[in-house]
Each structure stands twice: as C-alpha cells, then as structure tokens.
Design brief:
Blueprint (H helix, E strand, L loop, with lengths): L3 H14 L8 E6 L3 H10 L8 E6 L7 H9 L4 E6 L10 H19 L6 E5 L5 H18 L16
Parallel strand pairs: 1-2, 1-3, 3-4
The structure holds FE2/S2 (inorganic) cluster.
Length: 163
C-alpha cells in the first residue's frame, strides 16, 4: 500500500492530464417581482446549485428586449435564460405575454445567426419557488454544457433589432 506521500506525484500527474472542466457562462434575466425573488429564496434557503451565471434584474420580463439577449451572446454568454412571473401573475398584467412574444422573435434571430435554440430558455418562476429556480439553473447549465462554447461569443454582432 502506498503512502500519501508516494501517491502525490501520481495524483499530480493525473490532474495535469485531466482536461479542465468547461463551465458555460449563463446570463439570467429575471423579473424583480417573481424570478429574482425566487433566486433570493434559493439563496436564503441555502440550496446548492450551479453557480455559473450572472443575473440581471428587470422590473418585468416584458422589459426584456431582443437586443439585450443578442448583446449578452455578443459579450460572451453561452446561454441566456429569460424568467418572469407565471402567466396571470405579472405585476404589469401583460408583461409576461410580451416576454413570450419576444422569446419567439429572439429564437428566430438565433436561427439566423446559426446558434442553437437550446441556448435560449424561458421559464416562469415565482418568488416562492426557490427550489425550482435552482433546478432550472442546474438543468440549463447542463443543457448548455452539452452544446459547448457559443460560436458567437466575443464576435461583433451583424444583426440588430434596434429601430
Ligand atoms: S412583473 Fe414579473 S413578469 Fe411582469
């Protein structure tokens, strides 16, 4: 049986050969009243979940413009999650319906850019659904990890939806 001291060079050699694990960079747009509060609930509840995301708070999911998402991809995101209140719970009544329309529009732009639609996701998460927020992040992280790095990350955009 080898001592820990004898094993150390072998362990170091194995570590040197092992490919570095790649973690996708995710951007999460979350509405202030539901999904952002859901993220807070996950944190307060000390739920463990994948940490490879940055969250951007918007007052309502209806505020998320296609240009926000394209800019996130342009700046290096490998996946973008849009999240808001459940249908019927939007504090601005129709905001999440608007988000759904924008989501479909953005998906068609991603197709034009040659990006996989699976890099974009829309979820309704309430303030009380901390565990669900964590589950969505874990699932989306794995989904994007399987796709690999975004081919457009860091490349200047040639498409704009600005009026
Ligand atoms: S306020 Fe949350 S989706 Fe509109």
């Amino acid at each position: 049986m080898m001592t820990a001291l004898e094993q150390a060079p072998q362990v170091n050699a194995m570590r040197a050969k092992a490919p570095a694990a790649w973690n996708p960079r995710l951007v999460v747009f979350a509405c202030n009243w539901c999904s952002y509060a859901g993220a807070d609930t996950a944190g307060v509840s000390r739920i463990q979940y994948q940490p490879h995301f940055r969250i951007i708070r918007v007052m309502c999911s209806g505020r998320i413009q296609p240009d926000f998402v394209l800019r996130a991809f342009e700046k290096g995101a490998d996946g973008v999650l849009l999240s808001g209140c459940h249908i019927g719970d939007c504090h601005y009544v129709f905001g999440n319906h608007r988000a759904l329309e924008q989501f479909e529009k953005i998906k068609s732009v991603l197709r034009l850019l040659g990006l996989e639609e699976a890099r974009l996701r829309l979820e309704w998460i309430s303030a009380a659904e901390g565990p669900r927020f964590a589950q969505v992040i874990d699932e989306f992280t794995e989904q994007v990890r399987r796709l690999g790095p975004s081919p457009v990350a860091g490349k200047p955009r040639t498409t704009s939806l600005q009026p």
